[in-house]
């Protein structure tokens, strides 16, 4: 085996590049294969709004120069109400962020091969020992990591991930200038990240406006083709059509002009993960459904899964006799469920309940949030059943009945 590394990572997204960064810092010989060309990277994979929070910036030592705008609040909107939560955040220039992770991990010793599309695992006695890329090229590793996002060419073939089409949320976003941030009848969105629950604009999902400085914003919609989508969606209106519809009907966009070349689109799966790892192999970031189902935070979760994978590499390769068996790799699964995405099942259920609600119920939800103390709210957000119960009303019987029917059908 001439072309060999300690660790081979497919995909230079936030998860893959962060994992390379951690491993190179620990002195491992790590090679990242990325399908896009280096010139202009990232293009197609420049897909994210990049809304994040100080806990991610500090935990992963992310410099301010990849931030477009620091924000003060998170605003939740429904058709006729809103709720403002003071919560400092940062809207990243996602492309700069990705390039920073590549540059920093390179400086720490990681090797990157751009224009290298990974297609399948190389197997020996039923176990992955390397990857095939660009048709016939081969690279071998002690541990292989799939960080290609929903593409998952390795994890799918190894049966480690079971990303299902019906659980795929799709999103589109454009950047605009001349947006009105303080419009009468709406919350002031200056220095805010706003998420809107409104089936007219995002049936079975949500829409957003993230302030990116001056009069500019990232504006997008995403949804999953769930029951609410079937119920509320207008026939033939695509995800792009929904964004256009919102732009045409919301007064905040009356004078808005799209910024050329600033369009992002992508998808993520909202479901329970499968196995996560096997002999010599782990899947990280969006390759396994790591994105938070409720609010779509995928960057921080993906980075945490990268770190959990790096810890597992160290655990497996440091001993005198390295052990990369599926059993020893289980450390990654444990860390994932305990630290990366704890309470995933409950958060998925909360998400389903939320998207089944009507627009009128969203208005009521905002009124409830305004009267709730912040402590109960953060407990509800973390999946505490007692705090969630405080958000359920007597009139929610039919909503809860539909939710239970769904759960039983699963
Ligand atoms: C529209 C939209 C808005 C979002 N907004 C937010 C937000 O505001 N905040 C937030 O926290 N999260 C957000 N997310 C989610 C977040 O962007 C993702 O969770 C995150 O990018 C996942 O990182 P990743 O490294 O796992 O995968 P990706 O970002 O998908 O990176 C995968 C990398 O692998 C490469 N690749 C793909 N196939 C191959 C192959 N065969 N061989 C080699 N390389 C390959 C790709 O080019 C890419 O560079 C958003 C997502 C979308 C779609």
Structure write-up:
- The structure is a single chain.
- This protein has 410 residues and is an alpha/beta fold.
- The protein has three domains: 4-62 and 94-163 and 271-340, FAD/NAD(P)-binding domain (3-Layer(bba) Sandwich); 166-269, D-Amino Acid Oxidase, Chain A, domain 2 (2-Layer Sandwich), CATH 3.30.9; 344-409, no CATH class.
- 34% of the residues lie in helices and 27% in strands.
- A hairpin with a 5-residue loop joins strand 12 (205-211) and strand 13.
- The model has no long low-confidence stretch (mean pLDDT 93).
- It binds flavin-adenine dinucleotide.
- Flavin-adenine dinucleotide binds at residues 10-16, 33-36, 42, 45, 47-52, 117-118, 147-149, 151, 153, 171, 173, 220, 222, 264-268, 285-286, 291, 296-300, 302.
Task: List descriptors.
alpha/beta; D-Amino Acid Oxidase, Chain A, domain 2; 13 helices; globular; eight-stranded mixed beta sheet; binds flavin-adenine dinucleotide; 3 domains; FAD/NAD(P)-binding domain; 410 residues
């Amino acid at each position: 085996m001439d072309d060999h590394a300690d660790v081979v990572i497919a995909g230079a997204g936030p998860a893959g590049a962060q994992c390379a960064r951690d491993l190179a810092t620990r002195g491992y010989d790590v090679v990242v294969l990325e399908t896009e060309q280096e010139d202009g990277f990232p293009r197609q994979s420049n897909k994210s709004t990049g809304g994040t929070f100080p806990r991610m910036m500090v935990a992963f030592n992310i410099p301010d120069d990849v931030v477009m705008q620091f924000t003060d609040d998170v605003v939740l909107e429904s058709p006729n109400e809103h709720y403002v939560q003071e919560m400092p955040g940062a809207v990243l220039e996602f492309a700069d962020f990705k390039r920073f992770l590549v540059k920093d991990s390179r400086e720490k010793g990681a090797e990157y091969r751009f224009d290298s599309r990974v297609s399948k695992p190389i197997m020996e006695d039923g176990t992955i020992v390397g990857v095939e890329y660009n048709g016939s090229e081969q690279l071998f590793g002690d541990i292989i990591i799939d960080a290609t996002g929903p593409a998952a060419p390795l994890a799918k073939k190894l049966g480690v991930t079971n990303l299902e089409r019906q659980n795929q949320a799709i999103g589109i976003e454009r950047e605009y200038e001349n947006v009105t941030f303080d419009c009468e009848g709406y919350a002031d969105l200056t220095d805010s990240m706003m998420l809107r629950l409104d089936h007219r604009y995002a049936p079975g999902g949500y829409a957003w406006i993230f302030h990116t400085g001056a009069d500019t914003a990232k504006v997008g919609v995403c949804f999953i083709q769930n029951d609410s989508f079937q119920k509320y969606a207008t026939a033939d209106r695509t995800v792009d059509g929904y964004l256009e519809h919102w732009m045409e009907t919301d007064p905040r966009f009356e004078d808005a002009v799209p910024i050329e070349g600033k369009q992002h689109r992508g998808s993520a799966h909202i479901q329970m993960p499968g196995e996560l790892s096997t002999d010599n192999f782990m899947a990280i970031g969006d390759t396994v459904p790591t994105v938070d189902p409720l609010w779509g935070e995928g960057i921080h979760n993906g980075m945490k899964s990268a770190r959990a994978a790096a810890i597992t590499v160290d655990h497996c390769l440091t001993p005198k006799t390295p052990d990369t068996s599926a059993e020893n790799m289980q450390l990654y699964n444990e860390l994932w469920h305990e630290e990366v995405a704890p309470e995933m099942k409950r958060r998925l259920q909360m998400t389903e309940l939320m998207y089944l609600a009507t627009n009128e119920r969203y208005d009521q939800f905002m009124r409830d949030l305004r009267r709730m103390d912040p402590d109960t709210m953060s407990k509800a957000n973390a999946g505490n059943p007692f705090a969630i119960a405080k958000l359920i009303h007597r009139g929610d019987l039919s909503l809860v009945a539909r939710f239970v029917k769904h759960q039983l059908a699963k």
